[in-house]
Known about the structure:
The chain is mainly α. Helices cover about 85% and strands about 0% of the residues. Helix 2 runs antiparallel to helix 3 and helix 4 packs parallel to helix 6. The N and C termini lie far apart (about 145 Å).
Amino acid sequence: MELFEKEQRVGAIKGIINARFINILIIVGLGLLLKTKYLGGWAPGFEYLIIVGFGLLALGYNFAYWFFINRPIEKINDRMLSFIGVCQVAADQIMYTLVFYFTGTVESISFILYFLTILIASSLYKTKGIILAGLLAIFFHNALLLAELEGLIPHLAAYEGTVWFGNVFMTRGKMIGFAFYMGAAIVFSAVLSGLFRKREKTLREQKDQLSVKTQTLTGLTKELEGAKTSLEIKVKERTEQLKTLAESLEGKVKERTKELQLKIDELEKFQRLTIGREVAMVELKKEIKKIKEELKKNHQ
């Protein structure tokens, strides 16, 4: 069973269990109320014990369901979950059959409780399961009426003065009518369940698509994060290289500047020497010229 389907099944069973607690209290309360003096006189004490006993029995197996289904979902195996799902209908139908019998069967309206099990079936089962649940309800209902009519089990009258029990036509009408209405309930529940199943399938497909997209986005995010990390590493390495190169160039520039400064100093020194020599040459030429002029005068 897929996880999504399992979660849906567990959620549906939890809802049924919670609703059953309220249903049990209502049915037991109504049963006790109908046995009071305000509605026909006090009933024998054993009838109150039977009502309370049925209530405690129903609460007992419902608590058992509750403890089982509220465990972590990974601890609930598929086989036990399917078994608990079947019990949600079968156990209630057995209980409602007992209630139906002790409230007078053919003279009682407790048969409507069987229709609650069809609602439960429609929320848990597919069409085949709903049909089986309806047929089981028809079997319990009609078999009980037939067993009473044939004297296989004693009839428990719901109220004094009723005349329906023993009337073949009334019993036959009850059996046929119940089968007809249960059939209608089965069809209605099957159609409604089909719509729910279709919607559930659509939701599952959308969830799967979303899951695929999420995984794709997660993969892309990881790739981008990897690319970002790789780029950051490369940038860091390149920055260190440029920093080292800049420091190296700075050192070379300083060395070259120092060399050029030394050459400039040598050139300046050479220039000073050269200029001084030229000045001396000019002075010497003047001095020679002056001597020549003096010698020339002396010869004249």
